[in-house]
Predict the structure.
Amino acid sequence: MNLSDVTRFLESFMNFKLFEINKTAVTPSSIVMFLLFIAVFGMASHLLQRLLKAHVFSRLRIDEGIQYTLTRITHYLIMIIGAVIAFQFIGIDLTGLAIILGFLSVGIGFGLQNITSNFVAGLILLLERPIKVGDRVMVGSQEGDVVEIKMRSTTIRTLNNVAVIVPNSEFVSSKLENWSYGDQKVRLDVNVGVSYESDLETVIRSLMEVAAEHPEVLTNPAPDVLHSGFGDSAWNMRLRIWLEHPRRHLEVQSDINCAIVRKFQQNGVEIPFPQRDLHVRSPVPLPVTPGTESLRSA
């Protein structure tokens, strides 16, 4: 087999009709050209996104979440345009293709119902932006940051560095707890019990000093202390502080708790543990022995 035979074989193979779409023959060569167009537009989309981030978004100082939304929408638009041009280039009429896809959608609509709902929900998330990349959210009982919003699902990175993949439809149809939406300042409530024998003014002053000494506690809104109730063995006090951002609320709460322990020890304020007094009554006098003296005295 010489070179001309190989050339004729490749030519016949590339022009072999696989099937027809709207009276247009689909051959291996047309499929290769279609994939080549899609690859070119994909690379163009990637390059345009890099240029937007490096030269446009950085100068305009656009929010990170808006940057992500604009780049994703740009990518989808470029890929749709690329697909349309690729179909037109290989000679497939999109009008006929749309009719075929319409019939196919009737048969597979139920099977793709979840995918379609997640796709539409992904568009809603990108346009309405109830969440955006970088937001601190609660997914069930797990807390994490939004790291990626795709057309079908959203990736949440938990505090334990575990990726949680959440279908987009859940964010649209269910209640969403977003700590970073709008104003990112969050209030942190720190509860502590103090002995009934403690001086109340000393307790309040100590808690306010703890809040004032922490560098991440905001002065506006100012921290405050509430007496939230009377417990079995303690006054229930609540220190309310505000943080600039929710990302470090666990670390700040730990710092505040440790600072309260040290401040109370310094000022002689007792944090009591639960205790009960047991009084025993008996119609018959109990014998008193050295080993039971403490029991009778109780």
Q: What stands out?
A: The chain has three domains: 13-108, 131-178, 186-267. The chain has a mean pLDDT of 81. Residues 13-108 form one domain.
